[in-house]
Amino acid sequence: MMVKSLIRPANLAAAGFTFLRSFLDPRAEMRGMPVTVSVEITNHCNLRCPECFSGSGRMTRNRGYMDILLFEKIVGELKPYLYKMSLNFQGESMLHPEFPLFLEKSRDISTILATNGHFLSPLNAEMLALSGLNKLIVSLDGMDQDIYSAYRINGDVNVVMDGIRKVSEAIRKNSSSLKLIIQFLVNRLNEHQIPLARRFAKEVNASVRFKSMQIINEGAFEKWLPSESRFRRYELQGDNYSILSRLPDNCARMWFNPVITWDGKVIPCCFDKDAGHILGDINQESFRKVWTGERYAMFRKGILNGRKITEICRNCTSGLSWKISR
Questions:
Q1: pLDDT per residue over 187-244, tens digit each?
Q2: Of the four, 64, 235, 293, 319, which is 20 to 30 A from 126 by CA?
Q3: To 10 degrees, the CA torsion angle through 11, 89, 241, 209?
Q4: Using CA atoms, how far apart are residues 318 and 314, in angstroms rounded to an integer?
Q5: CA separation (Å) from 261 to 94, 249, 266?
Q6: pLDDT, tens digit (0-9, with 9 covering 90-100), for 44-90
Q7: 288-297 core/surface letters (b: 16 or more CB in 10 A; e: else)
């Protein structure tokens, strides 16, 4: 038992050592396994958010649902090393027909779920409160229907707010340790409602997180960028908007936090929305073989030798300036 309890910290130390060494040695050597992982159980979604790859229709990869046996393989191999698992990437995870099974299989891992909040029925709220889930993040990007649906197209703010109340009540009733977090994606249309979001979060015993907004459409900056600079990811440079980041030639995600898509493809990080950089397929090989393999090493070397030339990095928040992070 003592040996098992040392696996996670020993693995973290190994991964951390190789990451720090990469600042001095561009060989991009990897020791150990990831300490966190994001698993996409589906990339289907019920909403059509215009600055989301899934919702906007810009996603070109196939859509589908992860097989529970594939998930069992992921958990079986990575569980000893993980401090955290996220059950989402693109899409709405609660749309998966076998969604409760994924919670059951990840019960012994500190697990996070982000949802758009449209499936928080009384039954699901109770299930989530009792599931062993560590954190539930619910997106609420407006406090009335007009503001909310300007971005969350096809969404219903009243359904989401009612669902949050149901989860809050289920947590209270069951003395659950589930942490309820409201995520408010700040944009030009909703920034005046930040005080209302704070008030609602207090009413439902939730914490609230105000997040800067990623913009993927070239002509949409003026529509969505908030007026308050601390919520902006971008600044105007000449005639174009650019990410407020130094884009340093390094990235901790390459050593700590991969993403696995619904069909078992391993990709470098959460900014590779369309899975343009497939580094392996765990339907065909072990995760360890992918993680320590040549394709991953070559990608890491590419980041170390010039991150700016990798397209997915140009909209990445790693290395954001003080204007955003303060």
A1: 999 999 999 999 999 999 999 999 999 999 888 999 999 998 889 988 888 788 888 8
A2: 64
A3: -80
A4: 10
A5: 16, 26, 7
A6: 999 999 999 998 989 999 999 999 999 999 999 999 999 999 999 99
A7: eebbebeebb
Of 41, 34, 132, nearest to 83 by C-alpha is: 34
Q: Which residues contact 152 (CB under 8 A, 6 or more apart)?
A: 47, 49, 116, 139, 141, 142
Under the banding of pLDDT at 50, 70 and 90, the label for residue 317 is: confident
3-state SS of the chain is CHHHHHHHHHHHHHHHHHHHHCCCCCCCCCCCCCCEEEECCECCCCCCCCCCHHHHCCCCCCCCECCHHHHHHHHHHHHHHCCEEECCCCCCHHHCCCHHHHHHHCCCCCEEEEECCCCCCHHHHHHHHHCCCCEEEEECCCCCHHHHHHHCCCCCHHHHHHHHHHHHHHHHHCCCCCEEEEEEECCCCCHHHHHHHHHHHHHCCCEEEEECCCCCCHHHHHHHCCCCHHHCCEEEECCEEEECECCCCCCCHHHHCCEECCCCEEECCCCCCCCCCCCEECCCCCHHHHHCCHHHHHHHHHHHHHHHHCHHHHHCCCCECHHHHC
